[in-house]
Amino acid sequence: MKRWIVSLALLCATTVWAAPEWVRGEITKLAAEKAQVTVRHEAIKSMGMDAMTMPYRVTNAALLKGFKPGDAVRFTVKMQGDAMLIDALEHAP
Fold first, then answer.
1. Rounded distance, CA 57 to CA 8, Å?
2. Number of C-beta neighbours around residue 59 at 10 A
């Protein structure tokens, strides 16, 4: 029982304290009125996704302010229900 509790505690600690994975990509399409952006991006290892181009909704349309197609970006994603949402977006250094 003690080993199970320690394992559970370690799992929770790594889940809660794990830093988000920043993913690099390029904006190919922007639909701010829909809070949606299409990004050609590298693999997202934490989600088991290969590199691809796909549309994402953003958690807040204000995240898209100052961006345009062709911009190099980096972003983080989170799962909300069965949808992947971009919750942080910035110009790539």
1. 32
2. 16
Q: What is the pLDDT of residues 39-80, one digit of tens each?
A: 999 999 999 999 999 999 999 999 999 999 999 999 999 999
Q: How far is CA 75 from CA 12, 17, 44, in A?
A: 24, 18, 10
Is residue 8 situated within a structural domain? no
CATH number at residue 60: 2.40.50.320
More confidently predicted of 75 and 4: 75
Model pTM score: 0.78
pLDDT beyond 70 at 2: no
Contact criterion met (CB below 8 Å) for 71 and 37: no
Residue 46 token pair = 């934490």
Q: Is 41 helix (H, G, I), strand (E, B) or coil?
A: strand
Containing domain of residue 45, as a range?
Answer: 20-91
Please give the tally of structural domains in the chain: 1
